[in-house]
Model the fold of this input.
Amino acid sequence: MPQFKSFRSRILSFFLGLIIVIQVSSLYFVDYANTQNARVLVGEALNATAQSFRNQILTRNIGLTQAGRLLSGDFAFKTAYASGSTGTISTALDNHRRRVSANLMFLLSIEGKLVASSGSNTEFFKSADGMFYFPEFINNAILNGEASGLVSIDNEIYSLIAVPLLTPVPTAWIVLGFQIDDELIKELQSESHSHISLLTNREGNWEIGISTLSTEEQKILAENLGMKNAIIGKTFDLASSSATFFTFIEALPSSGNSSIYAILQRNSNDALAPYYRLRLILIALLIAALIISIVAGGAIASSVTRPVRSLVHLAGQIQKGEYQNKIDLYQKDELGQLASAFNDMSNGLYERDKVRNLLGKVISPEIAEELINKDVKLGGEEKEMTILFTDLRNFTGMSEKRPPAEVLSLLNEYLTRMTGIIDKYGGVVDKYIGDAIMALFGAPLDLPEHAQKAVRCAIEMNTALIQLNHDFEKKGLPTLEMGIGINTGNVVVGNMGSRDRLNYTVIGDNVNLAARLESITKEYQVPIIVSEATRLQSGQINFKNLGRIKVKGKQDQVTIYTPT
Amino acid sequence: MTLKRTIVIMIFICLVDFAQADSLSVKVTNASGQAVKDAIVYLQPKSAMNVSEVSAIEIEQKNKLFNPFISVIPTGTIATFPNHDGIGHHVYSFSKSKTFELPLSEEELSQKILFDKPGVVTIGCNIHDWMVAYIYIVDTPYFAKTNSTGLANLENITPGEYELHIWHPGSIINKDSVSNITIAQSQITQEAFTLDIRPDYFWKPAPPPDLEQQEY
Done:
């Protein structure tokens, strides 16, 4: 099977192929049946013509025989014959030949000696020994009392009959005959629309006696017949110079030294002309059916593939995240259902993306991803990570003196800047609590060197705040003071809250310690305080020991540091 | 010519112990061995001989047939052709021995015809094609016609040299079969001949089927 690029061309190819196969095979079989039918009809017509020709000869022979019988009983003729006078006999023959409208008349002795003759070219009928030229014919007469049949001399064909002259017993043969001439066969040709040729076959050699064919075609016919006398009574094809002839051979009653056949032929093109017209009509119908099939098939295929292509286009848009387009297909079939399902799917995807975007804004994208990709359920796991808290000192007091919009703008600018730095170091903002930020390093995604990264993040946040304060000063805005507390340790991380509403967050003493460290930065007059645990995992960063403090929830005192 | 067939003639001469008379018995059969009826057998003397005295025969026309079909008569015989049918017949002969014509007549008595030349006279009726009769005129006192067993007997023959003639209207040779024979005193000579006979229509045309067949 060839691979089709489109469904439409596959449908078209299939139906066109089907139509061509059906039409061409029906054309072939109709054509075949018609040709065979024509062959049979022409064969029957040729056969009928042959029989008609044969009957014409037989009828005329019967007429001549009856005339001959009357003559053989004619007393005056007997008297003339008995006179023995050659002149009397000859004139009597002439007289009687005219009476019965025969071309030829002979009087032969019982043994076949030519006694007298009347008509044209009668000298050809006399052998050198004075006998009649056709001993076979005379033998037939002796055997049967009478004889009739066709004979040929020099390819001229005659029909002869013989009856005995009774005086009162047979004493001579009266032979009457006529030549089968052009006039006779041309008449038959005009009646039957067939070519007629009379041929003699002497020891297998065909010779044309008389024919309505052209001289050239006569020659070809005689050459091509070959051993065709084996198929007498059947129609067969015989090629000629100009055309193929449907040919029928009829053996004629011959009574001489050679067999005589009538060959009837009809030009196959003439005979098949009506069928050729029918074939042309069928071919025209085939072409028309093909064109209609191409147009209609194309239209039907388009009606199927157009919505499919629309769906493909829409799917491409959906892939790019463009959900605003819808497919309009008011069909109740499978394609209509598919289009409707596609629209629903597009809506669904649009809703999901909207939720996802919103979620990413409300919570950190990493947490949002964690929530979306994992089953959202209550509960959590214990995990080591670093927790970073920031808070602005005296922000509450300052915000009371300023318009809320300006405060919110200031806060947003600060939070945006700080959040960017947290993102940069692989931290995740867990939540904003007013002006405070709670960030996680190592959750929800594992983060190698989370403590060191959290400390470096804090240092950069502090530097960034200094720059931010410069900007604020230029704008005439109040400057901010920030404290950062960092602790590293095991915490419980997970979803907390009620079944319907929950938070992804961390809890535990280590979280509280980080918050506590942030709150004491003000006392120690340093921007950043980290715990012993954080310092131990912070590699190359230098710290200054700030001493030991007692922390709620911890029995031992905790050593605190600030990066230098 | 296929007509020319060999004529087989077998001659058996049997000498009988005691002389009864000087006689000749001839048996004629056809090619298939069947007896040939109505064959004329006669002895032609090689020296001049007196023929029997003048006699007369009748060939009657009855039931549209001639009867007898074949007659053998010595020269000088007078024949009459009485018509018993009550319809006209037109009796004729184109034979060389006697050409004559008795024009259409319903008369019972016809004129007398003298047959004075030896030979065959074939008689027909111009209006009834199948009516055929043969008269064979011989110049000898010794003649006979074969019976239904194909036998013909000649008796009281003067001993001497003769030509034995056999003739039949259907004989394929269309003339007499002739052989020399010596008749010795006080002997019965027996001979047998085979003749090839042509189909009937050549010499005995079939009457129309509706005509009552009459035995000759």
Summary: The CA atoms of residues 483 and 527 of chain A lie 5 Å apart. Chain A has 15 helices and 18 strands.
